[in-house]
Structure formats: C-alpha cells, structure tokens
Specification:
- The protein has 404 residues and is an alpha/beta fold.
- The chain folds into three domains: 172 residues, FAD/NAD(P)-binding domain, CATH 3.50.50.60; 112 residues, FAD/NAD(P)-binding domain (3-Layer(bba) Sandwich), CATH 3.50.50.60; 70 residues, no CATH class.
- Helix content is 24%, strand content 30%.
- The protein is built from ten helices and 26 strands.
- The protein has a five-stranded parallel sheet, with no helix packed on it. The protein has a five-stranded parallel sheet with strand order 9-16-10-11-12.
- A hairpin with a 2-residue loop joins strand 22 and strand 23.
- Helix 1 packs parallel to helix 8.
- The longest helix has 15 residues.
- It is globular, with a radius of gyration of 23 Å.
- The mean pLDDT is 95.
C-alpha cells in the first residue's frame, strides 16, 4: 500500500519535488499537495512580466491540471493547513478536514516583509507576492496612477518595471546608495540605475521611509527628511521572510527558517522542509535554484537513495526591469583578489570578473549576460583559469580549449 505523503505548499519547490518523485518513486507514495491559493501552481519569477502585460496568466502555470492527474496527485487548492499533529501524524485544514501522513513536506515558502510604518494599514498600501497582488496593482497602473515602490532589490525592481510597463508613473525608493547591493558592485548598480531611469522610472537612492500619509486611502510616502512623495499606490517590496508559522506551532526547530539537515529533514524524521521556508546550515535561500536542488535531494532520499544537500552557490541570472543581470560568488574584490573588467557605457554593458589565486571566484554581468552559465561553471569547479584570464570578458568561445 502506498505511503501517504502530504506536501504543504504548492509553489515551485513543491512542483519540482513531485516532478522528481514521479521519475524516481512513482507509486511508492500517495501524494496530496495542499495550497492556500485557489489555482494551479505557477512561476512567481514571471509575476513581473505578467504585471507588465507581456504574458497572460496561462503562461505562468508550472504544470497543467492533466499533469498532476496523470501522476495520481491529489491537489487541494484554496485550502490552508491550520495544524500539524505530530503525535497522530495528521494535518488539519482550516475547513476541518483531517488527513493522515506517513511523510510530511513543508514547502510553505515565504511572506513579504512589511515593516510597521505609520499609515501602513491604509488602503492602497500593498505588497508584491502573488497573482492577487498583480491584479490589484495592475488596476492602478492601467489608469496612469502615481505609484511608489519601496525597495531596490530584485523584488522592488521587478515590481517597478511591471508597473511602469502597465502604464503607471513609478518612483522607486531605496534605503542605501545603490540598487541590488547584495548582488552588484557600485559600478554595475549605477549602470542598472541608468538603464531603469531611461525606462521612465524615477530612482531615489538613500531614501528612508518614515511612513505613509492619507485619510481614507494612501496619498503619499513621507521620507525621514520630511519630503512627501505623492502616491495613489504604494508597493512595499523590501524582501521576504520564511513562512515558519505552521512549523513553529508544531514544535519543530525553527531559527530564521525551518531547521533541516543535509537530507532536508527537520528534527522530526517524518517531516521535511524545502525551498524558501527551509534553513540549512544557517542559510536561508530566497532563490529558485537552491529550492530545486533541495527538491532533487529530498526526492532521492524519499526514493530510498543516498543524497545530501551541501548548500548552494548563490547566483542571480535574470532580466531586472528589462535589463540582463547576472551575479555569482564574490562581486567585490576583497583582499588578495584581482579583477578583470570590460565596460561599454554607451552600449550599457559591464562585465566584471573577480579572481583569486588564478581561480574565478565571482562575476558580475550587466546588460549582456551571455556566457553566464559558463562563468558559473568555472566558479563552481574552482579550476585554474590563468591561461584564459585576458579572454574571460569575451565569453566561452574565446576561452574553451585554453583553460588549464
């Protein structure tokens, strides 16, 4: 008889886990996937182009309904889990339904960070996390509303780009002196800011938010220096935090995320966690690739195979506000490191490589991300690249066959 396996969460990590399991252990488990959103699992990375109107809702779905049905997966959508009873090995849904599990996987993702700014509860103050947010935000943008986006990281830039493309008049506020400070050096960030400004988005750096003003609805954002920026809509996009509520209530070990070992198991050996909600060796990852790597490891373990997750090399490779951006490893040249840089400000291209003892340890590409996976492979391999040092900026065709 198939062992009941319940997956709480129906995002990208959960979908990849089911995909991997169907290839490794089809029939071994009776799988149920439970998600609070009442729709098929979708790709959150595509929310920005969806907001911009560049794609439609069917384009963001990860798998069609028939795919889940063909694998015998029960999908319970629009139904949130309210409790995990570890002693009884059951989960209870908000509607009262109780389901047994042999193995339980928490893929509960993350929640938007929303600091307690004064006026934060006013209508018109929003976050950018799901398709419901996209629908509400688009209604403002399409009528040419004044929109302030708070946050100059990946999430904020994606929101600003989508809103501007949809017709909004967008101002982007960022607390520090450069955009994407966790992925880009000062020069790369400045080039990105110029490209975003050229797309009609007003960028204000070193801008600390004090609160929001308005009576019946939000009317503006007040900065710490007293400046008030008029706004019909404010989008807070300063990051996310792991959604650990269910795990914490169940008594599992939780730090920043749900603490897991190299096999993605929690301190209860029948409960696992993957994706943005999981914390492994003190690290929480908010990117897709680590979630996929974790799903592969967990699928192998659930199939009875030996596998271990050793952590992920953080890499960003995507279009940010329509501009190609790639960053991996060390993006600042610390002590003992050297850099190789190619810059073409007229073309909007910046390519920086950080080397240490003849090995590539970091890379930043802005405007032209060709060869990103090649560079990522060099970083991961740790091979000596002294022979191709001068050719690095020109890409893989100039380097292949020359590396040591």
């Amino acid at each position: 008889m198939a062992e009941p396996l319940i997956i709480v969460g129906k995002g990208m990590a959960a979908t990849r886990l089911v995909d991997e399991l169907s290839q490794r252990a089809l029939g071994r488990y009776s799988i149920a996937v439970i998600g609070a959103e009442g729709r098929l699992a979708y790709n959150r990375v595509l929310l920005s182009p969806l907001l911009a109107g560049e794609i439609g809702e069917p384009d963001i779905e990860l798998k069609p309904a028939a795919w889940w049905q063909a694998r015998g997966v029960s999908t319970l959508y629009g139904r949130a889990v309210s409790m995990v009873d570890r002693a009884a090995r059951t989960v209870t849904l908000e509607d009262g339904l109780t389901l047994p599990y042999g193995k339980l996987v928490l893929a509960t993702g993350s929640k938007p960070l929303k600091p307690p700014f004064p006026g934060g509860e006013l209508p018109g103050v929003a976050t950018f996390r799901d398709t419901a947010d996209v629908e509400a935000m688009r209604s403002f943008a399409e009528r040419g509303a004044r929109i302030v986006v708070i946050g100059g990281g990946l999430l904020g830039l994606e929101a600003a780009y989508g809103l501007a493309r949809a017709g909004g008049h967008v101002t982007l506020l960022h607390l520090v002196d450069r955009l994407m400070e966790r992925q880009l050096d000062a020069e790369g960030a400045a080039l990105l800011a110029s490209a975003i400004t050229a797309r009609g988005i007003a960028v204000r750096l070193n801008s600390a938010t004090k609160g929001f003003v308005g009576t019946d609805t939000v009317e503006g954002v007040e900065l710490q220096d007293g400046t008030i920026i008029p706004a019909d809509l404010v989008v807070i996009a300063i990051g996310v935090r792991p959604n650990t509520d269910l795990a914490r209530a169940a008594g599992l070990a939780v730090n920043r995320g749900i603490v897991v070992d190299d096999g993605m198991a929690s301190d209860d050996d029948s409960i696992f966690a993957i994706g943005e909600c999981a914390e492994h060796r003190g690290s929480v990852y908010g990117l897709v690739e680590p979630a996929y790597e974790q799903a592969r490891v967990l699928a192998a373990r659930l199939a009875g195979k030996s596998a271990a997750y050793a952590g992920s090399l953080l890499a960003t490779n995507l279009k940010v506000s329509g501009v190609g951006v790639f960053s991996a490893g060390e993006f600042e040249a610390g002590e003992g490191a050297e850099t190789v840089v190619l810059r073409d400000r007229f073309a909007g291209i910046y390519r920086k490589f950080v080397l240490r003892e003849g090995r590539l340890v970091g890379c930043v590409l802005v405007g032209d991300t060709q060869g990103a996976l090649f560079y990522l492979g060099l970083i991961r391999s740790g091979q000596d690249i002294s022979a191709i040092r001068a050719d690095l900026p020109f890409g893989e065709p100039y380097c292949v066959g020359k590396a040591a």
